[in-house]
Amino acid sequence: MKLAQIVLAAATLAIPTVADAGVFNIHVGGICSTQWEGGKGGGYLGNWAGETSISAPVNQNDSMATATAQLASTFDTYCTGGNVCYVYAYSNGGATVSRTLSLYATAWNIGYVVASASNEGGSQLGGTGWLGEVFGGCYLAGHIGPSDHRNGWNHNDTHGRTVGAIGGNGWLAPYAQSSVLPGHDDGAVSTASASGNSSSSGVDSLCNGAKYSNHQIWWSCEYGSLNHYDLKMKGVCNDGGASGCK
C-alpha cells in the first residue's frame, strides 16, 4: 500500500469501489516537455504492483491552455468509470495539474496528486538570464512567472482533490538564481511556489505560510539541499514507486 494511501485512509474519497477497476498512476512532466521520461531531471515511470503507470502526453512548450486540454483528455481516458488515478507531477506539471483541476468540473476518480518541486505559484526566474538554462528554451518558459500562474486560475478549487507537495526549500545559495527567488528555493522555484502557498512571499520551510485549499505538505517540511532536478523523482520514490532516490 502506498504511504499516502495510509495517510488518507481515514478520509472519505469519492472513488467508486469496483472489483475489476484499473489503477493508473499518471505522470506529468515539467516545462518544455511532452512526456515524463527524460529531459532535464531525467525520470522514469514509477512501478507499483498491480497498477499501470502512464506518461501523460502533455505538451508544455507553447501554451498552458494546450497543456491543460491535453491533461484533461488523459484524465478522461484513464480516470473515469471504475478506474482510479493517482497523479505525480513535476515542476510546471504541478501548475498544469492545478489549472486542469480548477477549470474542469469532470468527476474524475483521482485519489490524490503528489507535486514534486511544483511551479504552481510561478517562478521569479521568468524573464531572467537563467530562464533558458534552468527551464529550457521553449516559448512557454517565458510565461510561467508568479503573475502568470497566480492570476491564471483559481488555485483553491481542486474539486476536492488533495495535492501533497514536496521539495523546494534547499536554499541553494551560492546559486545566482537564489538572489532572485524569495526565501528558500531549489534553484528554480521558491519554497512558496512549491509548497502551494497562497502568497508569493519568501518562506524558509515548506510548512510555513498559508496554503491554497486542499494543499498539504507530505512526508517532510525539509528536503535539505536537493535541487530542482534531484526532486523530480522524490514524490514517486516517497510513495513507494521507485528505488535509489536521493
Describe the structure.
The protein has a six-stranded parallel β-sheet with strand order 2-1-3-4-5-6. The radius of gyration is 16 Å and the shape is globular. It is an alpha/beta fold and 246 residues long. The relative contact order is 0.17. 21% of the residues lie in helices and 13% in strands. The chain contains seven helices and six strands, in the order αββαβαβααβαβα. It has a single domain, classed as Alpha/Beta hydrolase fold, catalytic domain (Rossmann fold), CATH 3.40.50.1820.
Taking the sheet with the most strands, its summary is: 6 strands, parallel
Sheet with most strands: strand arrangement: 2-1-3-4-5-6
- Helicity, as a percent range: 10-25%
| CATH architectural grouping | 3-Layer(aba) Sandwich
Q: Please state the overall shape, judged from the principal axes of the Cα atoms.
A: globular
What's the average pLDDT? 87
Q: Which helices and strands, and how do they pair?
A:
Layout: H1 3-7, E1 23-28, E2 52-55, H2 64-78, E3 84-90, H3 92-103, E4 110-116, H4 131-135, H5 146-150, E5 163-166, H6 191-194, E6 215-217, H7 234-238
Parallel strand pairs: 1-2, 1-3, 3-4, 4-5, 5-6
Helix pairs in contact: 2-3
